[in-house]
């Protein structure tokens, strides 16, 4: 298992280098001049040159990249151009808020997806199966930002059950209950898409596992329905389910962006969106890098879980 | 035939699949018996319904395939009338089954020892540790070398023959009275086929169990079986003890099968397909005798009369009007 | 937002997708099975018809629109659907909703379809190259794609669109870039699958050249799953594209598409909910129709998949 982990981590190195290059180049190639953003259109050319030198923008691109990577390795994520605050200080509270929303959404998506997927697979082609498949398709085609607005329309504006926005953070005046009330609509908005994907995959994986010959053999052993389902169907169906769940978590870390924007949730996604609009390059770079890193790590974690579940994966 | 030593008695078993709104018979009024300590073979080409018969006995079919009629008496109790829970108590404990493809039959994500122990834990009051210890003993018993270590391995670490030994160990774990073996050597290398068959035969004798052997291989039948039922198009068309069947086959189909097998052994250049044509599609069975379109001895009546399986002697029954009339005349 | 799942196209995939083949469940009983197949084909047919209507309406927007989509009528703002002269009402500036939906459809459909077409062509070329060349070429291509896979798809599209100047073509470019790896990987898997089939060996033995093998034998085998996948992707990309427009990274005012309309309506959600709700319903309906069309195509091209 340790060998597998090391191999998996070694394979990450080129990917992470590639990721950092992509993020760096993306920002570097962006049209628009940072000096204009910082100094305003009226600044003199001399001031601009001076600023470029302070920012290191007068150096060749590879040198700039090396400097950027070296500083990140030291834990220095730079300074926000828009707010003049250290990027790290901006990101940390935002990350915690996103983590809360992502965790709640993933939990909801898993509860719906695993339950509905299993139900559908155990009664294939039944009315229940058809209804679940239809609902799944519908939610899979629904834009989250629109869903969020529709939910706001009904539950916040019409029924006045839940707040529209205004989430500050967990240490805010309202306490835990207030956070929970603010969490409901963004969570539902974020979770329904992933829930649909998980449902569809759980259904097909379980169906596929049920059809394998060893299930019949296990029945011939005289196993009860519970043991049969647990050990010979669900256990075998788990690896692809774990993979898709991990992917959803990855998407949620960034994909909560739309909910965050709609509900003014102070998370990473809305931070990224705000800094894109403000052309705040250091913040965009750091946020994107963090999300990509988390995404990659979640995938490694899923691979480890799967290797533990299916010994054949460890050896390939 | 003394009625008291009958372990399994199958009577008029009908298994159907629902296709295009019709119930199509895959197993058609099949009857046979299995006696204590003896081996009965069911022979036939693929698609003749022999595997479906085996699965029907243990009620392992899934919709749209189902048992539509008949009785399966195990020591006098009709298995078809049991609840699913009662049936689970019979499966693996009283009647065990060994399947054709040993790789697909094992769960790839569970350890070998666990998969054997699982059968024991389903039927005996055993802790997991006790059951796994017993699993190692069973592995050793079926000839898996280094059984202690191998019990902790996964199926993909085993060769085909070793996997089949594992499945046999699991099948005999609870001391069943009946072992059903469905083409147990078809998926294996020729070199290990004989070893597996010997193992099965030894274990059967040792446990005084009965073996129901499903095969298409007449060589295997000759080596292993006491009684034989020949199936064609879902029907048993001839039934006899093994000597009678090989020396005095009555049904034209049985004769053709035997001729084919003998030809193969004598000279590979002659008559590789002595029976012209193919077995009928279960959806479009011919009228009368299902074999008549391919039968060299067919008479006009064969197209009309669906011959029942009738005893022509104490040891032999046959479903062929030509053979029945010839025996009656003699 | 929904990531594309490649298994949907019927080709088993690597670590990233769900990697599930057709389940070996017994076929359902005859009549019900046929009804299911028929119903599904009907759904695909209805979806195709609906999409032709939508595309036709968008194409003919200049002729069909009752009003100039940008013409504001200050006296008739927030008019609900059913108002005389404005079938679907007006928005916060008194612009006719129906006209805006028709014109917006032109942008939304372009943003949904063009990136998928470009990415499919590029991805097909990359996949064929990686799948048939093998060795270093394969390794390099796949590692490069892995880099893009390290980002959540929609987020990368937002980042790319964010650094470029907002606009329709920015949207098209960013979606195309993030799609290429997905199509590329599917095309490679399909290529390997087709290339391993016996008839390829036979063609090679019969003296077919490498190019002939690739064009005449391999490519035709790769196209069907790719077509199914691309159709499903269009549905997803209409949602993704509307998301970019919603964030203001796509089409710029006064022009609009369905996603931007949702965003415009948002400010007056309480006063004129239809300004938000209607464009969303159109997005869902069109995206859903592409899904049904994709499912129907898959069934038509691979009868085994019907058992699903």
Summed up, what is this model?
The complex is a heterotrimer of chains A (316), B (330) and C (308). By secondary structure, chain A is mostly helical.
How is this structure best described in words?
The complex is a heterotrimer of chains A (316), B (330) and C (308). In chain A, 78% of the residues lie in helices and 0% in strands. Chain A is an all-alpha fold. Chain A has one domain (87-315): MetI-like fold. In chain A, helix 7 (144-158) packs across helix 8 (175-210). The longest helix of chain A has 36 residues, at 87-122. The radius of gyration of chain A is 24 Å and the shape is flat. Chain B has helices spanning 50-57, 84-90, 102-105, 112-123, 128-141, 147-150, 160-172, 190-207, 218-224, 242-247, 252-266, 321-329; strands at 6-19, 22-35, 39-43, 65-74, 77-78, 95-98, 178-182, 210-215, 227-232, 235-241, 310-311, 316-318. Mean pLDDT of chain B is 86; it is low at 268-272. In chain C, helix 1 crosses helix 3 (97-133) and helix 5 runs antiparallel to helix 6 (168-195). Chain C has one domain (27-60, 100-305): MetI-like fold (Orthogonal Bundle). The longest helix of chain C is centred in the middle third of the chain and has 37 residues, at 97-133. Chains in contact: A-B, A-C, B-C. At the A-C interface, helix 1, helix 6, helix 7, helix 8 and helix 10 of A face helix 4, helix 5, helix 8, helix 9 and helix 10 of C.
């Amino acid at each position: 298992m340790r060998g597998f982990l090391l191999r998996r981590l070694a394979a990450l190195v080129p990917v992470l280098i590639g990721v950092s290059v992509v993020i760096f180049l993306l920002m570097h190639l962006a049209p628009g001049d940072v000096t204009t953003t910082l100094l305003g259109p009226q600044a003199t050319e001399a001031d601009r040159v001076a600023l470029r030198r302070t920012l290191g923008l007068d150096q060749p691109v590879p040198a700039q990249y090396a400097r950027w990577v070296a500083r990140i390795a030291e834990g220095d994520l730079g300074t926000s151009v828009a707010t003049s605050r250290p990027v790290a200080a901006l990101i940390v509270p935002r990350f915690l808020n996103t983590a809360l929303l992502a965790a709640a959404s993933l939990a909801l998506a898993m509860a719906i997806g695993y339950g509905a997927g299993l139900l559908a697979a155990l009664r294939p082609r039944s009315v229940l199966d058809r209804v679940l498949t239809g609902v799944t398709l519908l939610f899979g085609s629904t834009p989250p930002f629109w869903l969020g607005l529709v939910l706001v329309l009904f539950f916040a504006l019409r029924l006045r059950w839940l707040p529209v926005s205004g989430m500050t953070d967990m240490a805010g005046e309202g306490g835990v209950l207030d956070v929970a009330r603010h969490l409901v609509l963004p969570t539902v908005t974020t979770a329904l898409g992933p829930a649909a994907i998980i449902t569809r995959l759980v259904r097909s994986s379980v169906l596929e596992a049920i059809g394998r010959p060893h299930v019949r053999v296990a029945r011939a052993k005289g196993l009860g329905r519970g043991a049969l389902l647990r050990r010979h169907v669900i256990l075998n169906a788990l690896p692809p389910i774990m993979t898709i769940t991990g992917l959803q978590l990855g998407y949620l870390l960034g994909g909560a962006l739309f909910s965050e924007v709609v509900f003014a949730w102070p998370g990473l996604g809305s931070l990224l969106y705000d800094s894109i609009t403000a052309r705040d390059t250091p913040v965009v770079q750091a946020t994107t890098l963090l999300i990509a890193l988390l995404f990659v790590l979640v995938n490694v974690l899923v691979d480890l879980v799967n290797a533990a579940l299916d010994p054949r994966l460890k050896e390939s | 035939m003394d009625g008291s030593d009958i372990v399994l008695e199958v009577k008029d078993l009908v298994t159907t699949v629902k296709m295009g709104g019709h119930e199509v018979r895959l197993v058609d009024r099949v009857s046979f018996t299995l006696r204590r300590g003896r081996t009965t073979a069911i022979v036939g080409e693929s698609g003749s319904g022999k595997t479906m018969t085996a699965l029907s006995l243990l009620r392992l079919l899934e919709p749209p395939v189902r048992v539509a009629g008949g009785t399966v008496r195990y020591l006098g109790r009709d298995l078809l009338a049991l609840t699913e829970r009662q049936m689970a108590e019979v499966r693996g404990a009283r009647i065990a089954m060994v399947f054709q493809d040993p790789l697909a039959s094992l769960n790839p994500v569970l350890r070998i020892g666990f998969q054997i122990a699982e059968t024991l834990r389903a039927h005996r009051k055993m802790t997991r540790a006790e059951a796994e210890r017993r699993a190692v003993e069973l592995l050793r018993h079926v000839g898996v070398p280094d059984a202690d270590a191998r019990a902790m391995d996964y199926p993909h670490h085993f060769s085909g023959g070793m996997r089949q030994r594992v499945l046999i160990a699991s099948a005999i774990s609870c001391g069943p009275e009946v072992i059903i073996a469905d083409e147990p050597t078809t998926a294996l290398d020729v070199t290990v086929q004989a070893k597996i068959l010997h193992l099965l035969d030894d274990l059967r004798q040792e446990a005084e169990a009965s073996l129901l052997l499903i095969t298409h291989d007449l060589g295997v039948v000759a080596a292993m079986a006491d009684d034989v039922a020949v199936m064609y198009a879902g029907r048993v068309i001839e039934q006899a003890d093994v000597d009678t069947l090989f020396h005095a086959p009555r049904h034209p189909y049985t004769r053709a099968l035997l001729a084919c097998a003998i030809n193969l052994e004598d000279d590979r250049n002659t008559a590789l397909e002595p029976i012209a044509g193919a077995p009928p599609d279960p959806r479009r069975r011919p009228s009368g005798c299902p074999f008549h379109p391919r039968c060299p001895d067919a008479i006009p009546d064969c197209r009309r009369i669906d011959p029942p399986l009738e005893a022509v002697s104490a040891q032999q029954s046959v479903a062929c009007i030509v053979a029945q009339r010839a025996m009656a005349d003699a | 937002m929904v990531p594309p799942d490649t298994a949907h196209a019927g080709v088993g995939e690597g670590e990233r997708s769900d990697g599930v083949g057709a389940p070996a469940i017994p076929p359902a009983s005859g009549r019900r099975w046929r009804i299911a197949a028929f119903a599904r084909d009907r759904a695909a047919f209805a979806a195709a018809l609906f999409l032709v209507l939508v595309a036709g309406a968008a194409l003919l927007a200049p002729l069909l629109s009752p009003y100039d989509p940008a013409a504001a009528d200050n006296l008739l703002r927030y008019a609900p659907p059913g108002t005389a002269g404005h079938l679907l009402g007006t928005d916060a500036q008194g612009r006719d909703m129906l006209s805006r939906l028709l014109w917006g459809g032109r942008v939304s459909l372009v943003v949904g379809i063009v990136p998928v077409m470009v990415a499919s062509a590029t991805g097909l070329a990359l996949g064929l190259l990686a799948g048939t060349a093998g060795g270093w070429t394969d390794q390099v291509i796949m590692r490069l794609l892995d880099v893009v896979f390290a980002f959540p798809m929609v987020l990368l599209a937002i980042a790319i669109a964010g650094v470029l100047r907002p606009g329709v073509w920015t949207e098209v470019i960013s979606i195309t870039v993030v799609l290429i790896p997905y199509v590329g990987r599917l095309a490679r898997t399909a290529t390997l699958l087709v290339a391993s089939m016996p008839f390829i060996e036979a063609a090679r033995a019969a003296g077919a050249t490498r190019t002939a093998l690739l064009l005449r034998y391999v490519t035709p085998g790769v196209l069907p799953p790719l077509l199914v996948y691309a159709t499903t992707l269009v549905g997803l990309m209409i949602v993704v594209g509307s998301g970019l427009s919603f964030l203001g990274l796509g089409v710029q005012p006064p022009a609009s598409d369905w996603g931007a309309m949702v965003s415009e309506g948002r400010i007056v959600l309480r006063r004129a909910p239809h300004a938000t709700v209607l464009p969303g319903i159109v997005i869902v309906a069109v995206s859903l129709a592409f899904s049904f069309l994709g499912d129907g195509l898959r069934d038509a091209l691979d009868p085994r998949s019907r058992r699903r």
